[in-house]
Amino acid sequence: MKRLFSGIKPTGDLHLGNYLGALKQWIALQEDYESIFCIVDYHSITSAYEPNKLNEYVLKCACNYLASGLDHVKSIISLQSRIPSHAELTWILNCITPKSWLERVPTFKEKAAKQEDNINLGLLDYPVLMTADIILYKAEAVPVGEDQLPHIELAREIVRRFNTTFGELFPEPKGIVGKIGRIKGLDGADKMGKSLNNCIFLNETKDEIWRKLSKAVTDPARIRKIDPGNPDVCNLFSLHKLMSHEDKIQEVREGCTTAGIGCLKCKRWLTDSIDKELEPIREKYFQYLQNPNYVGEILVEGSKKANLIAADTLEQVRDLIGFNYDFIK
Ligand code: TRP
Q: Three-state DSSP class for 184?
């Protein structure tokens, strides 16, 4: 079986965008690949963060992974900072990566513009750490959002440079982008994200989902209930298409285009669909959250398994780059 690697930064509770854009795809892929799903805490410190929140964020991220259906028996669920090889390989890769490659990365330019007072080297080096994450496991498949593709391209370039400089060791990883594309937030404008306050969290109750959806942006041209709407420009219809049953989707399209239903009705139905899918996840999430030590053990076990693979790869790297000093046993 081919290897797969992916990760999410622990920045608090995961939301519907993470679920539809990443987790749901991972759950399907874990059947076909030997998968490593990592919580990438080293990546999360490249932007300002509160050290005393990290404990909670890592725990919640792990609970969301498990509650959504990642299987810690079938796959490896790991914590990046508990596997020292990630940071070590990053240093080695740093020394073959031209700085100019990193300065060209679009996410770096965006982040640098957003955090002008904190353009730290980690921010610039972010894609190299990501490369190390992937190639330590010789992973060939990397499910990511579209915004991450430049990072995968860079990883491939670093791999080529390593292989030609020191000898063939790593396969070139390939990004797998889901069919769904980016999930827009409830404002209908930006990508769904925690910091933009436009998301539905995976652990929210039906009432909370309804409260948020009732205020969400729909077809802006539909002002009165008696006006027919255009589902194809309505952000909530795209959520219906991802969350509702085929019959319901048809009913919404029909009702909206004929002004048979108003936006509130459509939002009620969407609340039902989202709640139906998230309810079992929410239930499991709180069970895991109440057993943090159990979740911690899963991460420790997963990180140990990951460490066996990673340390072995790092040993091969050390051999190739000339660190196998023969007078030191
Ligand atoms: N940068 C990724 C994101 O923000 C997270 C990530 C870190 C990752 N390391 C990775 C994804 C390795 C895939 C593979 O989504």
A: strand
Q: 99 catalytic, yes or no? A: no
Euclidean distance between CA atoms 215 and 39, whole angstroms: 32
138 included as an active-site residue: no
Position 256 scores a pLDDT of 96
Nearest atom in ligand 1 to 40's CA: 7
Alpha-carbon span 244 to 239, nearest angstrom: 8
CA angle at residue 21 from 129 to 268, to 5 degrees?
150
Task: Quick: pLDDT tens for 130-146.
Answer: 999 999 999 999 999 88
Residues 166-222: pLDDT tens digits? 999 999 999 999 888 788 999 998 889 888 889 999 999 999 999 999 999 999 888
Alpha helices in 74-120 (DSSP H): 85-94, 99-103, 106-114
Is the whole-model pTM more than 0.90?
A: yes
- Spell out the residues 6+ positions from residue 179 whose beta carbon is closer than 8 angstroms to its own: none
Strand partners, 176: 143
Q: Take atom 9 of ligand 1 and give the residue whose Cα is closest.
A: 130
Q: How far is 133 from 80, CA to CA, in rounded Å? A: 8
223 has a pLDDT exceeding 90: no
Among the listed residues 128, 127, 110, the one whose alpha carbon sits nearest the alpha carbon of residue 119: 110
The confidence band for 329, taking pLDDT boundaries of 50, 70 and 90, is confident
**Site of tokens 């436009």:** 198
**Amino acid present at 44:** S
Q: Which whole-number Å values give the CA distances from 306 to 11, 84, 195, 204, 318, in the listed order? A: 22, 11, 31, 32, 18
* Complete domains list, the chain, with CATH: 3-184+291-321 (3.40.50.620), 206-286 (1.10.240.10)
For the question of residue 241 being annotated catalytic, the response is: no
